[in-house]
Amino acid sequence: MALLLTTIGMRLIRLLASGDSVLIKGVIKVDSLHVEQSADILVVVGYAPFNAAEKFFMLDSNHAVQLWDGSLANLVAFESVESLVYTKVVTIYSSKLTPVGRLRIYFGYRLDDGIIVFNASQPISVVVM
Asked: What is the pLDDT along the chain (129 residues), one digit of tens a residue?
């Protein structure tokens, strides 16, 4: 059984079991001033086991997980887009969840001039039991 998790301008918190199959998508509403500009799509995930501090990871263009040092300059692109459209759907993850703990999923875009727009106050929040 697959579960679809999405967020469109709202906070979403789900409780899932380890081993559940999920499809996590995010919808980016692009600022009208940024439409038709090239950009990198960024995905960052905060992960905290129940008994440890949160660490942050980023997903690269091969959808591989990399530890992130917290420096904006070191964020890698999940996807590159030649021309942003008003609404961009991003498939973030499609598989089974295995780590037990809390996940906070952030996503957005980085323009060529370095401006980053993302869901800072509204991450997708998941608790895996």
From this structure: 344 444 444 455 567 778 888 888 899 999 999 999 999 999 999 999 999 999 999 999 999 999 999 999 999 999 999 999 999 999 999 998 888 999 999 999 999 999 999 998 888 888 888
Cα–chain center distance at 114:
18
> Are 26 and 89 in contact, with CB atoms under 8 Å apart?
yes
- Would you list the domain boundaries of the chain? 2-128
Residue type, 89: V
- CA-nearest of 33, 20, 18, 31 to 94 is 20
CATH code of domain 2-128: 2.60.40
